[in-house]
Structures are given as C-alpha cells and as structure tokens.
Amino acid sequence: MLDKNWMESRYTIGSLVARSAAMQRVVKLASLQIESPARLLIVGETGTGKTVLARAIHNSSSRAGKPFVAVAAHRLTPNSLDNVLLGTPGEPGVFARAEGGTMVLTGIEDLSPLAQERIGQVLDSGVYTNTAGQRVPVETRMMFTAHSGELAERISRGMFAEDMYSRISQAVISMPTLAERNADIPYLVSDVLQAFAARERVTRPSVPYHYMELLTRVEWPENVRQLRNHVESVMSLSSGKFDPEILLAHFEEIESPQTLRGLVHDLLQKLVAAPKTASAMAGARQ
Asked: φ, ψ for residue 128 (rounded to 5)?
C-alpha cells in the first residue's frame, strides 16, 4: 500500500483534485486560509480528506518548511493529556513540536471535557506551560477537524461545549462527500496511479473503461479514503494490472445496494470481454 503520510505530504492547494463544483468551492475557501492566523475547523464525513486539506493549506503557506503535527483527539485521555500536549522531560509535546508550523487536532468531537478545558485555556491565553514550568507563547497555526454529524450531536447533548466550538471555529470549511464530487473520481484514481507508478518506477497503468464506469456508479460510504484504498489494493494485488478476477473479488466485498449488484456483475463481465482503456482518463492529470 502507498504510504499515507507521503501521499498527503505532496499536496498543495493547487494540486488538489477539484474538477467538481463542490471541490472548487472548497479550494476557493482554502485559498483564503493559506496565510490566515484564524483557527480553522474542517468538517466532513469519514474519509472526505479533512486532514489532507489541512496539510495542503500548510504546504501552500509560508509555514511549509516548518513542522506539520497532527494528533488525534482520542489520544488526549485524562492520563495522557498533559504528556501529549506539553511533553515529558524526555520528549517535547505537540505544542513544542509544532512551533512555527501547523498543529492539527483531528476528530475534535472526541475531546473529553477535561481536554476541552485545558486546550481552551491555551487558546484563550495564547501560552502553554512547558515541562520546565516556563510559559511559552503559542506560535503555531491551529487547525481542527471533526465529523460534522458527530460534532453537532455532541454539542446538542452537552458533551462538547458551545464556547469551545466558538474558540476553534473562527473559520469553517465543509468537505463534500465523494457522491457530491463524483466528477472528481477519474482524477482521484489517476492521482493514486501516478503515486503507484512513481513508487514502483513503472509506467502509470491505464484504467479499463468499464472499471472506471463502475467506480463512478457504486457507493463509497467512506468516501475518498475508501476509493483510494480500493485502487491501491487492486494495484498491489495485481502487480500494477487491472486483473478482472481481482476486481471481481474486491467488488464482492463492497456492500453495494441490491440495485447495484446486477450493475457490478454486468460491468465486470464486459471488462473481462473487452478490457478497453478508459477514455475518461485521457484528460486526467499526468
């Protein structure tokens, strides 16, 4: 499988796949955030690319040569909170590691009340206390990601403080689902194949037409992440070729709606009979 960190580290705002109107709106909003000091909240469903967007904003900014540090909110348990944020005598915390760069707190809806309180204090004061007991100014761009539905639910149930939400959402960008950016699918696939070819030092594989048609018509509940993982897995298992037997096995694992099962079977049969290269890929990024 392709290295996730390496994949994400390549992106800038200008290199994001944005042929769809939905992603073009995201790119427009993100462009305004490149040098902004505002705390940015990026919301969306699972696998829509929230952290990828945060990384692209960082890579496009004057902070690009500085650290990019992402930490999952669920790691900030009462027992580990201070160690992760502030560090230990032998290891700096995330505030110190991200100094001058960008710190992203992912899955913010999972923050415990104690973690919300501690982080809120840092956001309000603009300083944190390091392991030596010194008060250090926070010189880091702060970004946050959240599953939109889960965050809204926790706020409504009183599990996520409204004043904390106000602190982290000076700017908000909402990521579209893959269904809302269906026009991007051929170019997202091309992006994965480009990375695969670079890693394996081979010519980028061509995509069978019927396979691309299938990718644009089935549902992807986990959005871009699931699509990428699917294509990467097919490439790895078939040594860079779109083997019909491997494709069939992969699509049998996808819990497609019943109405799509016939479509999957028919298109894969066409693929076996006529493995034509996808003309839709001709205009994809090289």
From this structure: -135, 160
Residue with tokens 């705002």: 13
Cross-strand pairs, 137: 127
Q: What confidence tier does 9 reach under pLDDT thresholds 50, 70, 90?
A: low
Q: How far apart, in whole angstroms, are the C-alpha atoms of residue 177 and residue 22?
A: 9
What is the predicted pLDDT for the residue at 263?
60
**Quick one: tokens of 77?**
């348990």
Using an 8 Å Cβ cutoff, are 112 and 149 in contact?
no
- C-alpha to C-alpha distance for 268 and 216, rounded to whole angstroms: 14
Q: Rounded distance, CA 202 to CA 90, Å?
A: 43
Are the C-beta atoms of residues 123 and 167 closer than 8 Å to each other?
A: yes
Q: Tell me which H or E stretch contains 41.
A: strand 40-44
**In sequence order, what are the beta bridge partners of 92?**
87
Q: Distance (Å, rounded) from C-alpha 110 to C-alpha 77?
A: 10
Give the strand pairing for 40-44 and 171-174.
parallel
Mean pLDDT estimate for the chain: 86
What is the spatial order of strands in the sheet that 40-44 belongs to? 68-72, 102-106, 141-147, 40-44, 171-174
Question: pLDDT tier at 156 (50, 70, 90 boundaries)?
Answer: very high
Strand, coil or helix: what is 43?
strand
- Residue 250 CA to residue 148 CA, distance in Å, equals 29
The 8 Å CB, 24+ separation contacts for 231-237 are: 231/189, 231/192, 231/193, 232/1, 232/2, 232/192, 232/196, 233/1, 235/192, 235/193, 235/196, 235/205, 236/1
What distance in Å separates the CA atoms of residue 180 and residue 174, rounded to the nearest whole number?
12
Which of 148, 173, 138, 168 is closest to 32 using CA atoms? 173
State residue 282's pLDDT score: 38
Do 205 and 197 contact (CB within 8 A), yes or no? yes
Structural domains in the chain? 4-174 (3.40.50.300), 179-283 (1.10.8.60)
Supply the DSSP symbol for 231.
H
